[in-house]
Amino acid sequence: MKNLLLAGAASMAVLAFQPAQAADLMRPRQPVADTVVAVPAGFSWTGIYGGVHLGYGWGRSNWGFIPAGTFTSPSSDGIFGGVQLGYNYQINQLVLGIEGDASAADLSGWSSCPNPAFTCASRANFLGTIRGRIGWAWDRTLIYGTGGVAFGNFRNRTYDAATVTQVGSYSNSRVGYALGAGLEYAWTPNVTTKLEYMYYDFGSSTQLAGPGSLDPANEVRIRNNVHTVKIGLNYLFSTGPGPMARY
């Protein structure tokens, strides 16, 4: 009797094991990962950068002779070049930043004064800005808008048209605003180039009449604006761990 009970228990254990084993055999095999592949982080625009630029500029100086009520508008153009320094901070694809630049310039031109016996000439010697930047990044490509405070230095002169002898001069430094947009591309983790357009408006300034002035018989009010296109080369000193995610 005892042997019979043991045999029955063994048979039941075998029958219980066989369905479980069959179920295991029918279950799909799960793949086994041989290696773990690391996905590299996207390019980061975050960090301090500095560089150089070279460009072409053009503009117009509107001279108004008061109280004569006469006007002339010598146009000017030429090249400029300088340096820039800035900082970017990237959040997802949004890039925020601030940039300052300074350029030596030779943007000059002339036209006949209202009195044709004289020539009126204007020249921009210096351009600089401190601007905010806001852009949108597609990995290594950044498109942005920019705007802020502009600084300029201008020299305005009058000449005797017949003898080309200077008869009046007025130099001054000006503060205005600048607006622009640009496209920047990162060739390596640290080296980028940019193409940028900028408009500068310096408002008006007035030189009082008197000896050595542009017109000793009149006050002269001059309004300056400049357009520029430049190519820049930047070096990113630090790029951070990757775009900072915000949700």
From TrEMBL:
Keywords, ordered alphabetically: Cell outer membrane, Membrane, Signal
Secretion signal span: 1-22
Domain Outer membrane protein beta-barrel: start-end pairs: 42-237
Keyword Signal assigned: yes
Annotated Gene Ontology cellular component terms: cell outer membrane
Main subcellular location: membrane
Presence of keyword Magnesium: no
SUPFAM superfamilies: OMPA-like
InterPro entries in the cross-refs: Beta-barrel_OMP, OMP-like, OMP/PagP_B-barrel
Tree of life domain: Bacteria
Compartments where found: Cell outer membrane
Family: Belongs to the Omp25/RopB family.
Protein name, per record: Outer membrane immunogenic protein
Organism: Phreatobacter oligotrophus
